[in-house]
Structure formats: C-alpha cells, structure tokens
C-alpha cells in the first residue's frame, strides 16, 4: 500500500440531518471502492494506490453534489510513499480498537 488519504467532506446543507445524509452517501461510495477504510468522527481514511485514491477523493465531491449539496469543501491529508509501504490504519490505531 503506497498511500493513505484522509478526507473530510463538508457539504453545505440547510441542517445537520441533511449534512449527515449527504456525508453518509460519500462514505457509502468510499465503502463501495473495496479499499480498506476507517470512518472517524471528523474524517474517513482510505488506503491503497495513490492514483486511484486521488480519483476517489475527486469523486467524493461529485457524490456530495449529486446528493444535493450546492457546494462542498474538503480537507485532505495524504501520506504517499511510492517505494514501500506507508504506515497503515491498523498500525496507527489498531491498539485502540480491540
């Protein structure tokens, strides 16, 4: 696994219920990609090939807009190591979730 990406998708929405509905659609899309992912309270982290993760990040914005958000802000963190492995989700936080 050459990359780990954390994405916080913040769709503009009229209320918290609608915001959660839109974010749930984005998370469902991430889950459908088949890559290992972890949903946290502020962001979702995905592991996999760098280029494919960048495509997923881009699509997350489109998913939010198609779900009804008039606009979307996103905060992205990327760990990329083209030669080797980045530190995995399991190694970072696995000991806290047993």
Report helical residue fraction: 25-40%
Overall number of structural domains: 1
Main sheet makeup: 4 strands, antiparallel
Rounded mean pLDDT score: 96
> Span between N and C termini?
23 Å
> Strand fraction band?
25-35%
Q: What is the CATH topology?
A: Alpha-Beta Plaits
Low-confidence stretches: none
The total of helices stands at 3
* Rounded Rg: 14 Å
Q: Total number of β-strand segments?
A: 4
Summing up helix and strand content along with how strands pair, one would put the structural category as alpha+beta
Known CATH architecture: 2-Layer Sandwich
CATH class: Alpha Beta
Which features does this protein show?
single chain; 98 residues; alpha+beta; Alpha-Beta Plaits; 4 strands; 27% strand
Explain how this protein is built.
This protein has a single domain, classed as 2-Layer Sandwich (Alpha-Beta Plaits). It has a four-stranded antiparallel β-sheet with strand order 2-3-1-4. Helix 1 packs antiparallel against helix 2. Helices cover 40% and strands 27% of the residues. The protein is α+β, with helices and mostly antiparallel strands.
SSE blueprint and pairings:
Elements: E1 3-11, H1 16-32, E2 37-39, E3 44-48, H2 50-66, E4 72-80, H3 89-93
